[in-house]
Structures are given as structure tokens and as C-alpha cells.
Amino acid sequence: MSVRSRFQNFFDGGLIQSVLSDLSYRASIERLGRLLIKRVVWRNHTDEKQIALTFDDGPHPIYTPQILEILNEHSVPATFFLIGKHLTKYPGIARHIAELGNEIANHTYSHMLLLKLSDEEIKREIQCTHDLLFELNGQKPRFLRPPMGLFSKRVLDVIEKSGYRTVVGDVYPRDPHRPGKDKLVKRILARTQAGSIIILHDGGNTEVVDRSQTVNALKEVIPMLKQRGFEFVTLSEMFNESIDSHVPLINKLD
Fold first, then answer.
1. Among the four residues 130, 134, 236, 239, which has the most C-beta atoms within 10 Å?
2. Whole-model pTM?
3. Could you list the active site residues?
4. Count: domains in the chain
């Protein structure tokens, strides 16, 4: 292959995504963050072999139902961080997520970088999605994952004043970068431990969304983790005792 061909292949989308995936995975910001920031839930510090599967950016009309089918087949619950603007398009899928015993959580309305928004704008992003989630099953969601996992002290203050607990996670195989099904499985198995929160995606915010690698990896990784003795739980089940009970759940933001 010529130098020109290699250069062109690097920028064709697939290879550069793979390189970004590898670099981001090795940097492992989510594993470093838990050493520095205690206000955010990165994982549960426990000896019990409980783990939580979480999914971001849904609901999606193609991939969310596929993931729900896999979870149901293996009797595994998960926590879905849903985006408000997608909820308005696919309320039936979102309702089905909850009906199957999964937990629904807040991923803001527009999936905008919260660091760039004012306090009032952040509150609106949270409240709009909160109202939609509450309409699904009459239950107040407890957890919020900021878009792209990015936050500041100010953002955390607004989230907490809104009655939510901020969750990131500690096992993120970078599935949006589409590094390949085998690499996703390997990454999840390598880093999952007691109390881990696994970050995956059932939807997206681009014109073209492809979560087929996530779906195929999930088919393999769930049985493998079960064989290792792990029990899958929702975030509320995982933190039933360790999340501060005095933190008020959101009602209406002033």
C-alpha cells in the first residue's frame, strides 16, 4: 500500500476512530476521576460481586429494542440514561424499558455540554427530561449522567440542588468509536470488578447511529460476566444503602 493510500485510509473515518478509541481508553479518565472527585459516583466500593450495566443516549428505534431483547433473554436489568429529545420521539420504547424492570435515568434534554450553559439553562435541561421520565412510570429518577461525562464544580452544584446524584462509571470501552466487537468484549472483561458501573450506548446524537458492535458485544459479555460470578443490578439496587438518603429527589425547579 502506498503512503498516499495509507494516509487516505487513516482519515476515512474507521481507522481514525479506532485510534481515538485506543488513546481514550488508555487515558482512562473515568478511572482517574474517582481518585480525585468524591462527589461523583464512579463505582460502588463493595466486596459484593454486583455490577451495573448502563446505557446512554437512547431511546433509539433500532438498537434499544435489540438491547432490551438481550437483557430480557438473560434476565439482566440495566439503567438507561435517556435524552429528553429522543424521549419525545419514542415514548413507547422508553416506557417498554421501564416495564421490563430496567431503571430510567436522566441524560438531559438536548445532550449539550453543560459546562457551556448557565445555571438556569442546566436546570431546564434537567427539568424537561425529568418531567418526561416521571410521566413514563410515575417514579422520580435519582441519577443523572452529564453529557460526555463532563462537569465542573458549578455543574455538580446545580445537579445536586436539582435533587440528582451525578453518575459517570468506571468501565467505558469506548463503544461509540466502534473499535470492534472483540475489543469491546476484551475491554469490559479486563476492567470489570465488584461494584463496577459499565458505560455503553444504545443511541446517539449524530445523523447516523450504529450501535451494532455494542449489541453484538453484549451478547457475549453478559454470559461471560455471569460465569465469573457477577450479579447485574440497577443503580438504585446497587446503591440502596450507600447513596445518601437525605439527598432530596427533584420535584420542581424554581
1. 130
2. 0.88
3. 56, 201
4. 1
